[in-house]
Amino acid sequence: xxxxxxxxxxxxxxxxxxxxxxxxxxxxxxxxxxxxxxxxxxxxxxxxxxxxxxxxxxxxxxxxxxxxxxxxxxxxxxxxxxxxxxxxxxxxxxxxxxxxxxxxxxxxxxxxxxxxxxxxxxxxxxxxxxxxxxxxxxxxxxxxxxxxxxxxxxxxx
Length: 157
What we know:
Largest sheet: 4 strands, antiparallel
Number of helices: 1
Shape: globular
Number of strands: 10
Number of domains: 2
Radius of gyration: 22 Å
């Protein structure tokens, strides 16, 4: 009976240890992905980045037609997605995206973690405002019934 209890206790300890390892791995993986706070954040564009980028390229996947097309969107300008009621606008591009507290900024002008802040309007109504990350396309990805959006390239001024 004592031997059975020891084996049971050891089994629980082993299970707990294994679960702890899995949680540690999940935590390490999550730390690698950019996290953007859901609370309002300030976007600060450093002087070394201001005016250095003129456009980004976004791949638009039409899920119904099974087609993908890349469009060049000028930063700060509206872009009407052909054949749809959607208007896209890249508000900000940060080549080295980082989050410092509640501030979103770029640590440098190097393409370390490129991110674009995208606003999508449907029939004039804002339906999405968030970030596209070229290194992590699935992170905070906008879910639209017909279209998918991926940041694929960047154009310097």
